[in-house]
Amino acid sequence: MKNITLSVDxxxxxxxxxxxxxxxxxxxxxVREFLAGIHQRxxxxxxxxxxxxEMSRASKARRGSATWSRDEVHDR
Length: 76
What we know:
Helix content: 55-70%
Number of helices: 3
Shape: elongated
């Protein structure tokens, strides 16, 4: 695990320390959980894009020769 140094406004830090204490946690744990959440969301999004590409390559569906003009696509 790596250590990082952050600069935070004193008032913000005081508020976060109180919040962490109310939650039975620490500022360090809150920041670690927040960053881990970002990582997890990015990883899930990456995996979803990868799966979509795999499904697209495996699909037997084809577009065919039909084409539409811009006006036809936006015709209401």
